[in-house]
User: What shape does this take?
Amino acid sequence: MPMNPFLAPRQQENLVLASRSPRRVEILLGLGFTFDIDPAPEHLEDGVDHSDPFALPAILADRKCAHVSTRRPHDVVIAADTLVIVDGDVLSKPRDDDEARAFLSRLAGRSHTVVTGVAIRGAARGLALFGSERTEVTFRALSADDVARYVATGEGRDKAGSYAAQGVGAGLIRSIDGCFFNVVGLPVGLFLDLMQKV
Assistant: This one.
């Protein structure tokens, strides 16, 4: 059974990922964790106050975590939510390829902030932990053809800001200031800091 060397074995028991994100699954597997997958429903994102976009990912992550934790009270539930923020506006997953092109055109040649909120809950033991991580990403200057060709790959259709830093979308990026894994969808340092409190 794989284990993470930075945590005690008892801190790695009965873990549940409240997400269907293949990127988060891959990161957790790479860290040596064994876990169940029990995604929270998408509707939990409805009706959330958007007045502070930088606080939003942690709020959404905690909502998802709490929802799954109520039906799995004896497990340690992990949830995360990632948003791209530019000019104070939230760019979540694009509705369609037209919106994806608009997102990427807006990000081209400039910097934006990727924020991921992480929440960990264990209802039976009264465990409720959460935090968020920010990473600054700067895109290369991109032509309309560059944007259209990337959107046509389909890679960014289910991702905040319409791109994947770990895939072909790496070619969009000039620089990353902060945690790379945060841009992928799970800030590893923050996650392990929270898990050490479990």
Observations:
- Strands lie at 15-17, 36-37, 76-86, 89-91, 111-122, 127-139, 173-177.
- The chain has a mean pLDDT of 94.
- The domain at 9-195 is CATH 3.90.950.10 (Maf protein).
- Helices lie at 22-30, 56-71, 97-107, 144-153, 180-184, 188-195.
